Amino acid sequence: QVQLVESGGGLVQPGGSLNLSCAASGFTFAWYKMSWYRQAPGKGRDLVADINSDGRTNYADSVKGRFTISRDNAKNRVFLQMNSLKPEDTGVYYCQREIGNYWGQGTQDTVSS
Prior knowledge:
The protein is an all-beta fold.
C-alpha cells in the first residue's frame, strides 16, 4: 500500500534552515507529482510546493526564493529545503501524492527565537 513518511522537522530560530524528507513506498514514485503542504496552527492545509514527474516545480508566493523542492527517484524520496525561515513558516508539514489523495503523518516545524 502507499506510504509516505516525513522526517526532518524541528525547532529552529528565525533565519535558520531545515531540510524535510519524505520517504515514499508502495507505488512507482517516479511516475507521480509530489507535493508539500503546511498546516499552520488553527488553519487549513496550504500548498507550499510541488514537483512533477518531469521535475517541473511550483511554489507558493510566500516561499519563493527561500524554499526548494526536489526529488530523488532512485531513492523514492522528495525533499523540501527551507532557508531563511520565518515565524510564519511554523506548522505541520505534510507530504502528499495528489493522485489518490495520499498523505503522510506530518512533521512539526517551529520557527521561534
